[in-house]
Specification:
Helix content is 34%, strand content 16%. By secondary structure, the chain is of the alpha/beta class. The chain has one domain: TIM Barrel (Alpha-Beta Barrel). Helix 2 packs across helix 3. The radius of gyration is 20 Å and the shape is globular. It starts with 7 loop residues before the first strand and ends in a 22-residue tail after the last helix. The relative contact order is 0.14. The structure holds flavin mononucleotide.
Length: 347
């Protein structure tokens, strides 16, 4: 019995299996943050391929929160309207869809407008961001709230708050990027204040029957970066505030990735967060075989397998993996079954 091809329910949402498309920025949107045909087909292909859920690439909650000028956005209603069409198509494949709400902070390549917790540069290319004022911080929370409401209007099943990979909420948490002396800097309680306020703001407008995911940094492998103990403390606070699943990442608060890389390289961190919080977790990191995915889910190391580059290489990986695992997978286009059986005459 395959565990990867067993369902998982989070609040009112049931996923048909444990394979999820990990959020991946394609740098292919339009300068106004609108979805276009390339991205529509890109995501549509992964829905047809049998993934249980798609997590969109970063959807910027405000223009200066974009990583690049080609990011998608959710800061206006036209953007939500464009995404609605994608949501409807993905649903027609039996697939769920989650919006990743994000703010790039000091890692925005739109350097003129970038803000960070402090005037500390990520690297020489991006230069020094402006230190976020109290008004900026209030604005960030309001923009997350408004984006969550637009995601609801567009019909998304779930939301993910992006707080890893060196972006704004992660920057606030890590002392290496946060030198503030107000209530958002210094102690851990202060450094995670903005993240918790964003979660509370979003949870207050996101319906009770829809799950809220949080992409966490479990460790930075750097002096003055996030430590594993701190990540566990944050995860416990997130659980109290209605987060339903922790999607576990590591590193990237500074340029380069300082940790080891091997198939499933972040799964140990997800497993320990799962034990510490009793919350379900998702894991990513060079997972490309059904055997490894099966080992992770069956041994309770993580509940969901987020596939990034594996699904970039092959949108139909879930259909092939189900075949390999001898599991049933309802095909979004039933005629695809003609291509998964033994060799016969094709006509
Ligand atoms: C091209 C590319 C774009 C990415 N963009 C995002 C993103 O928009 N948001 C995010 O949280 N992570 C992003 N990531 C990280 C992936 O979601 C994933 O965590 C990482 O690639 C590790 O998983 P993998 O080894 O299966 O690719 C991106 C990764 C890649 C390769």
């Amino acid at each position: 019995m395959s565990k990867v091809f067993s369902p998982l329910t989070l609040r009112g949402m049931t996923l048909r299996n444990r394979i999820v498309m990990s959020p991946m920025l394609m740098y292919r949107g339009q300068e106004d943050g609108l979805l276009n045909e390339h991205l529509y087909v890109h995501y549509g292909a992964r829905a047809l391929g049998g993934a249980a859920m798609i997590v969109t690439e970063v959807l910027a909650v405000e223009p200066r929160g974009r990583i690049s000028a080609k990011d998608l956005g959710l800061w206006n209603d036209d953007q939500a309207e464009g995404l609605k069409r994608l949501v409807q198509f993905v649903h027609s494949c039996g697939t769920k869809i989650c919006a990743q709400l994000a703010h790039a902070g000091r890692k925005s390549h739109l350097t003129e407008t970038a803000i960070g917790p402090s005037a500390r540069a990520y690297d020489n290319d991006l230069g020094t961001p402006s230190e976020a004022t109290s008004a900026d911080i209030e604005g960030v929370k309001e923009n997350y709230r408004a984006a969550a409401l637009r995601a609801l209007a567009a019909g998304f099943d779930a939301l993910e708050i992006h707080a890893a990979n060196g972006y704004l909420l992660h920057e606030f948490m890590a002392p290496v990027s946060n030198a503030r002396t107000d209530q958002y800097g210094g102690s851990l309680e202060n450094r995670i204040r903005l993240a918790l306020e964003v979660v509370e703001t979003v949870r207050a407008v996101w319906p009770d029957d829809r799950p809220l995911l949080y992409r966490i940094c479990a460790t930075d492998f750097e002096d003055n970066g996030v430590t594993e103990d701190e990540a566990h403390m944050l995860a416990k606070e997130l659980a109290k505030r209605g987060v339903d699943l922790i999607d576990v990442q590591t590193g990237n608060i500074l340029p380069g990735y300082a940790g080891p890389v091997f198939p499933g390289y972040q799964t140990g961190y997800a497993e320990r967060i799962r034990k510490a919080t009793n919350l379900p977790t998702a894991t990513t990191g060079s997972i490309a075989s059904i055997d490894l995915a099966e080992d992770i889910v069956s041994n309770g190391r993580s509940d969901l397998i987020f596939l990034g580059r594996t699904l970039l290489r092959d949108p139909f990986w879930p259909i092939r993996a189900a075949k390999e695992a001898g599991a049933e997978l309802e095909l979004p286009i039933p005629t695809y079954a003609r291509a998964t059986g033994p060799f016969e005459r094709g006509f």
